[in-house]
Design brief:
The complex is a heterodimer of chains A (217) and B (181). By secondary structure, chain A is of the alpha+beta class. Chain A is built from seven helices and eight strands. Chain A has helices at residues 15-20, 40-52, 55-60, 65-76, 87-98, 108-118, 199-213; strands spanning 9-10, 12-13, 25-32, 121-126, 135-138, 158-161, 166-169, 186-193. In chain A, strand 6 (158-161) and strand 7 form a beta hairpin. The two termini of chain A are 16 Å apart. Chain B is mainly alpha-helical. Chain B is built from five helices and three strands; from the N terminus they run ααααββαβ. Chain B is elongated, with a radius of gyration of 36 Å. The termini of chain B are far apart. The relative contact order of chain B is 0.08. The chains are: A alpha+beta (217), B mainly alpha (181). Chain A: This is B3/B4 tRNA-binding domain-containing protein.
Chain lengths: 217, 181
């Protein structure tokens, strides 16, 4: 099965959140893949991406529609995009700091390629550690992140959650135990789409990431 | 109309009758439903998106100029659905920062235009601009190029008033990214 055969399915968004932030959507696709060192083709792709990405591009990125939509969304949800960088800008800053996109193995490289190519926030989770579909909702009063010992969430915080528990704050840290490791056999690729971003670009991000994850070699 | 003015008692009686017939004004009650702020919130979200877009455009326009402040005060505790008052504060902070930086850019552009004109004069009559030095930064351009009025043949040129503009060759080249993986 090629990456293009995968049909991204929409994740759920709680009605109160959807009413407050229209256009916010989550797309996901599940892929059978294991964590491993990136094949040579993927590393060459990152190298080529580094060539296309320079300081001038990083500056001009704010004018591009997709990164600009994420900046606007960050402002709307109380995040300062110059402090908590949007995914595309974070990748750009890291590229300038390190002198190139460094390979960190799969699936990190898959998410990086998808984010740099499309500007879409893409993340990868272990599909077997998630109950049901992933979605977005608002935090309840006195809800904790990561069990009884976890930090208390502010009422109204935007959460990434599965059917039974919060997985983390949107664009923030995820709870422990979701990271991909050697035992992972299936991964769920998630793209967060915000208002102003065409859905097809979010789907493209998932196809790109799935293609990188299933690269042979 | 003296007849009417001369009958104050009858007028008062009519007023008392009207007051007795009319129902009493009900006491004010709190609304049973909360005011729907959604329309106002939607408008503020749109305004924030537009202002952020304008600020991003201005950021790109000002590059490579330095000295601009791009910090916009942001509420803490995100990501979350912001209440109306905080959305207003974000909107106002963005609008304020945008206005300040636009004004600063206008001032800077005026100085840069003068410097461009000065470069033209330097090229036409270098002897009138002895030792003048203008860099790309002074005209709002990227790079390390600069125009420097210097005497031709050193001290001899100084005595004979032979001046010329030397244009630098720009920045050193960047290093490579390492070898092909």
């Amino acid at each position: 099965m090629s990456a293009l055969d995968l049909e991204p399915r929409p994740g759920w968004v709680a009605p109160d959140l959807a009413a407050e932030l229209p256009g916010l959507e989550l797309l996901q696709v599940t892929v059978a893949a294991r964590a491993r060192r990136s094949p040579r083709g993927v590393r060459q792709r990152l190298w080529a991406l580094s060539s296309r990405f320079n300081g001038a591009r990083a500056i001009a990125m704010r004018r591009e529609p997709v990164p600009a939509a994420y900046r606007a969304f960050f402002r709307q949800i109380g995040l300062d995009p110059d402090e908590t960088r949007t995914p595309a800008e974070a990748a750009a800053v890291e590229r300038l700091r390190a002198g190139g996109f460094r390979s960190r193995g799969l699936p990190d490289d898959a998410a990086l390629v998808a984010t740099v190519e499309t500007g879409i926030a893409t993340l990868v989770l272990d599909a077997d550690r998630i109950e049901g579909d992933v979605g977005l909702r608002l935090a309840n009063r006195r809800e904790r992140l990561g069990g009884d010992e976890g930090p208390v969430l502010d009422h109204g915080q935007v959460l990434l959650a599965d059917a039974v528990r919060p997985l983390g704050t949107l664009f923030g840290d995820l709870v422990d135990g979701l990271a991909i490791d050697r035992s992972t056999e299936r991964m769920v690729l998630i793209a967060v789409r915000v208002r102003g971003v065409p859905r097809v670009i979010a789907e493209e991000a998932l196809w790109l990431a799935a293609g990188v994850l299933t690269t042979e070699g | 109309m003296p007849e009417l003015l001369d009958r104050p008692d009858q007028f008062d009686e009519d007023a008392e009758m009207s007051a007795a017939v009319l129902p009493a004004v009900p006491p004010s009650l709190d609304p049973a439903t909360e005011t729907d702020e959604r329309a106002a919130r939607r408008t503020l979200l749109d305004q924030i998106a537009r202002l952020e877009g304008d600020l991003a455009q201005l950021f790109c326009t000002t590059f490579p100029r330095e000295g601009f402040d791009w910090v916009v005060a942001s509420p803490r505790g995100g990501p979350r659905v912001l209440p109306l008052a905080e959305l207003e504060r974000v909107r106002d902070a963005l609008a304020s920062r945008l206005a300040e930086n636009r004004l600063q850019l206008d001032r800077r552009a005026l100085v840069e235009e003068r410097n461009r004109g000065r470069i033209e004069h330097m090229l036409l009559a270098p002897e009138q601009h002895k030792w003048a030095l203008i860099s790309n930064e002074d005209i709002g351009e990227p790079g390390c190029k600069h125009w420097h009025v210097r005497p031709r043949y050193g001290v001899l040129g100084m005595f004979l008033n032979w001046w010329r503009v030397r244009i630098s060759s720009g920045c050193p080249l960047a290093g490579g990214r390492g070898r092909w993986p």
